[in-house]
Amino acid sequence: MARPHEDRERHTLVDHRPGGMPVTFAAGAWCAVEIASVEAARADAAISAYETLVEKARSSAAKAGAAAILRSTNGRRAIVLMELDGHVAFRHVAAAWDDHHLEAEHRAKAESGSLALYRVDVVAGEAGIDPDTHDAYAFERASRASGAVRAVLPSLEAADGFRGALLFGLDDAKSPNGSALLYRFTDAQRFDAFRASAPALQFLGPVGETGETVHAVHPVKTFTGEAVPG
Predict the structure, then answer these.
(1) Model pLDDT, residue 46
(2) Within 10 A of 64 (CB to CB), how many other CB atoms are there?
(3) Mind listing the domains of the chain with CATH numbers?
(4) How far does CA 223 lie from the centroid of its chain?
(5) For 182, how many CA atoms within 13 A lie in the half-sphere containing its CB?
(6) Longest dimension (CA), the chain
(7) 70: Cβ contacts below 8 Å, ≥ 6 apart
(8) Is the dihedral of CA 206, 28, 115, 113 positive or negative?
(9) Is the pLDDT score of 198 beyond 90?
(10) Above 80 in pLDDT, residue 100?
């Protein structure tokens, strides 16, 4: 079993064991969201790298708060959700994570990331991110503003198997129509049935038109409480 180790560059204590307590984000919270594309064979290494990046962000000037790392079921995506205080903290994180991706490219690792700042618009139902649950999660990044996506929430909350959801609005003046959704359902089949329903198609569009496909994911690691000082 993996054990905590000390990152020698920044002397940051990192626990690479999977799991953690359930976390969620309050409405109005700022969150950095990273969507990384990786080779399936490198998924574990990518998750480990992001665990280190999150711990560094929590013990650095960025003062990051609660966070969650999710892995797609096909092993091709690693998704990081991390609470921040706002734009200044995000700039700290963006600079550090840009350096990480440059290093990964230099080492010819198959990894690319899309880091952006979002704000939690809606928390619906039991939206906790829990590595120990058997519930089905899915993550979707849409090319529609969160205000427009809100219209699907009544149908979503009434859907069979619905447990919870987080709706994020993209904080980017160049792309004001971006948003993201993290869904939690009792099982994948019921989520798929909702996503193929008429209200979902009306307010979210077909899966192929959302800016990215919908990713079936599961929480690998969560971070709560105070970070270990660097």
Answers:
(1) 85
(2) 25
(3) 25-223 (3.30.70.100)
(4) 13
(5) 32
(6) 52
(7) 78, 79, 80, 81, 129, 137, 139, 217, 218, 219, 220
(8) negative
(9) yes
(10) no
